[in-house]
Design a protein that fits this description.
mainly beta; elongated; single chain; 59% strand; seven-stranded mixed β-sheet; four-stranded antiparallel β-sheet; 0% helix
Length: 123
């Protein structure tokens, strides 16, 4: 399974970016998808997560500025980021929990990460 991210870049404070992450490979469905970020010298933290039925959860720092969404038919998750701040500067990583149905009764879950995309917000 591969997760390919796109949409990162350099933006001025107050600007917007839209990240996308598409999953490909062998699986039957994807349950949770999420975006994490890691700034230099800091731990990786959850930005937002979304279930297959599109229930979303956000980190406290988001404060209504970001929106996570997904397209199950395209195996893709998006992160719309508005009103970006310099402290949002980080590498943003896509995460997906895939499910492979091995039998009627059993399914195997696996976790995957993207390679990361840099988001830089200038002041």
């Amino acid at each position: 399974v591969q997760l390919v991210e796109s949409g990162g870049g350099l933006v001025q404070s107050g600007g917007s970016l839209r990240l996308a992450c598409q999953a490909s490979g062998r699986f039957d469905r994807i349950n949770t998808m999420a975006w994490y970020r890691q700034a230099p010298g800091k731990q990786r933290e959850l930005v937002a997560s979304i279930t297959r039925s599109s229930m979303a959860n956000y980190g406290d720092f988001v404060q209504g500025r970001f929106t996570i969404s997904r397209d199950n038919a395209k195996n893709t998750v998006y992160l719309q980021m508005n009103n970006l701040k310099p402290e949002d500067t980080a590498v943003y990583y896509c995460y997906a929990r895939t499910v492979f149905q091995v039998s009627v009764e059993g399914a195997h879950e696996s976790d995957y990460w993207g390679q990361g995309t840099q988001v830089t917000v200038s002041s």
